[in-house]
Amino acid sequence: MNLSVFAQEYARAAMRKPGQFLQARPARQCTICGYEGRFLDVGPRPEARCPNCSSKERDRIMGLYLRRNGIEMNGKALLHFSPERPFFRLWKDNPNYVAGDVKLSRVANAVVDITNIQFGDGHFDYLICHHILEHVPADAKGMQECFRVLKPGGTAFFSVPLDQNRAETWEPPPGMPAAEIERICGWDHVRLYGRDFPDKLAAVGFSVDEIRFTPEEGERHRLTEKHGLDLQGLDRIFVCKK
Ligand SMILES: [Zn+2]
């Protein structure tokens, strides 16, 4: 058990939503750290966070795939954009791990521009890019760059907020004021992805699959956000092979 993370997460949960501890909750199992027990609420999302590694629903979908396929990142060349904390903690000592973001931080060890990646062709075994492309004006260039730096046979993981009711991605018309784009797309997002998102990945050369899980796995590991809002594709991750 990771006591310092555990104490921090419990303190935060008790401060933000003390009422949750009056409610009985079933034991869940984390796909990343293996913790079994009560998960903690995050804002409107009941049982979203693992108290032992801070993982959230979407992180655990990724964790389920890695675990199910026996994928071990130690020693692997991995490019990870804006790393999620539980994964950064796991992989930070791997010398071939590039935790990239627009600036250095506690969970970023490199500055990487997804539209102009400073590594050679075929450098990485794996690439992880969750909830990045909706912030990137030249997203097609970003996808091309991800494809370029991946080794043949390598795997990249992508997810974005995705409107299942929309067949085609909405791009703001030229000249639309930034405030209007933000009102439509949400904070700091530059477009609304539709069901054609995987086609965009395929267009740069990837063969694309979706990580699937059973309803039982969804419950046991709490993989789907429960907040009564539109899920916006938060329940799926695309696995892309080069
Ligand atoms: Zn965990």
Q: Overview of this structure, please?
A:
With 242 residues, the protein is of the alpha/beta class. It starts with a helix and ends with a strand. 27% of the residues lie in helices and 20% in strands. Helix 3 (85-91) links the parallel strand 5 and strand 6. The chain has a domain at 71-213 and 225-241: Rossmann fold. Zinc ion binds next to loops.
Percent in strands: 15-25%
Broad CATH class of one domain: Alpha Beta
Bound molecules: zinc ion
**What's the tally of helices?**
7
The proportion of residues forming helix, as a percent range, comes to 25-40%
Q: Averaged pLDDT, please?
A: 92
User: Could you give the distance between the termini?
Assistant: 37 Å
Q: Structural class given helices, strands, pairing?
A: alpha/beta
Describe the biggest sheet? Answer: 7 strands, mixed
Spans of 5+ residues with little confidence (pLDDT < 50)? none
Q: Tell me the total number of β-strands.
A: 11
Radius of gyration of CA atoms, rounded to a whole number: 18 Å
From the 3D structure, determine the CATH topology of one domain: Rossmann fold
Strand line-up across the major sheet? 7-6-5-8-9-11-10
CATH architecture group name of one domain: 3-Layer(aba) Sandwich
Instruction: Identify the overall geometry.
Output: globular
CATH homologous superfamily label of one domain: Vaccinia Virus protein VP39
- SSE string, helices as H and strands as E: HEEEEHEHEEEHEHHEHE
